[in-house]
Description:
CATH architecture of the largest domain: 3-Layer(aba) Sandwich
Order of helices and strands: HEHEHEEHHEHEHEEH
Number of domains: 2
Distance between the termini: 49 Å
Strand order of the largest sheet: 2-1-3-4-6-5-7-8
Largest sheet: 8 strands, mixed
Number of helices: 8
Structural class: alpha/beta
Number of strands: 8
Helix content: 25-40%
CATH class of the largest domain: Alpha Beta
CATH superfamily of the largest domain: Glutaredoxin
Radius of gyration: 16 Å
Strand content: 15-25%
Amino acid sequence: MPLLNDEIVEQVKQELADLAGPVKMVMFTQEFECEYCAETRQLVEEIAALSDLITAEVYNFVTDAEKAEELGVDKIPAIAIVGAEDYGVRFYGIPAGYEFVSLLHAIKLVAAGKPELSDETLEALSSVGALVHVQVFVTPACPYCQHSVMLAHQLAVASPNVRADMVEAQEFPHLSIKYQVMGVPRTVINEKTHIEGAAPEPMVMEKLWEALAA
């Protein structure tokens, strides 16, 4: 049974009709060990079927460990959104509910390679010389989480030193415990700097610099 009904299929087709370039959705799975791997794989394949510019690539997390390492994938289910280059845009856990919108946004963002950020943010990101890892913890029912995920992914596209993950908090409880996720969205930058709630762009950049200085 398809995950996307006819109405959603038509909406997705319209949303992806003006892609600026080709995109690969690289998915890692191991269905007998991963609760939502099968559904995530199906979602990736259904979306890829709706555009000639989208390709689905599916790998086994264990037997294709070299590919996982190449893309920095360390847990499943995982989706790497890769365009003309790999900007470090990742989804860990099924991007369902409100995060389905984040997934479509990421596809369009990576296809274009042009983040919609302020000039001040773009200038600041151009001077980032160290690696920055942004993890946004979400749940599918959180209406505010997609803002944080979309912003994090734009930062990754804007800077080769930033990579950004959506992490579905309920699918990775060990990480939720590690990073003390009591509510979502919770953004974690370089392991120790945290942001509660859907913070605006200037606040996220302030926290990014704080993380780099730590």
